[in-house]
């Protein structure tokens, strides 16, 4: 989801709670440029439940407009009322992503979720997410990124749809952003609505960071207000 700081600077993903989120909502880097990313997340999906997770990721622009990426989610802990689950840490469902952008600011992507879990007793299905993205610069500072995606295209679950929007305001070394996420648009459950607020920090031409808060405002039940705190370090190469 975030826009690049500049042609040679790093971009940072706002990793929303969806593990299949595409790398970002803005065009890929120039051909031959890549990034590696380390992310940390602390989540409170419901009352008295806490989760932590690390992610490792990398992306590379093969040619102008064409990007390949790999995301490795590493769940660390899951606790209910202070009681932690045993043997929770491990690799869970890596994501291989491909994005291709046209010059007019429209892109297409596919995320392929692999049924790999190193933790005992956990099984997953192979899945795929397909979508279209659109980005526009309103001014030199204000930019919009957006995405419409179809989810659960291979698993037994019903096909679903999500929409994501992000506004970035570039102040130079600091870029505040505001994100909106809509989920379960085709599913049988209530439509979910999440608000994301945060900022990107440019450390130097090859290193950046971000921090954000995500709030679940609707669709999670009367007693649930999910919240995620996230942060990333990104290194360009």
Structural class by helix and strand composition? mainly beta
| CATH hierarchy: architecture | Beta Barrel
The pLDDT mean sits at 88
By CATH, the topology is: Porin
Q: Detail the poorly predicted runs.
A: 1-20
Strand order of the largest sheet: 1-2-3-5-6-7-8-9-10-11-12-13
Model description:
This protein has 237 residues and is mainly β. The chain has a single domain (34-236), classed as Beta Barrel (Porin). Helix content is 0%, strand content 57%. It contains no helices and 13 strands. The chain has strands at 34-46, 49-63, 66-80, 83-84, 95-101, 106-113, 127-137, 142-151, 160-169, 174-183, 192-204, 207-218, 227-236. It has a twelve-stranded antiparallel β-barrel with strand order 1-2-3-5-6-7-8-9-10-11-12-13. Strand 9 (160-169) and strand 10 (174-183) form a beta hairpin. It is globular. The two termini are 19 Å apart.
Keywords, please?
237 residues; mainly beta; Porin
Please render the helix and strand layout as text.
Elements: E1 34-46, E2 49-63, E3 66-80, E4 83-84, E5 95-101, E6 106-113, E7 127-137, E8 142-151, E9 160-169, E10 174-183, E11 192-204, E12 207-218, E13 227-236
Antiparallel strand pairs: 1-2, 1-13, 2-3, 3-4, 3-5, 5-6, 6-7, 7-8, 8-9, 9-10, 10-11, 11-12, 12-13
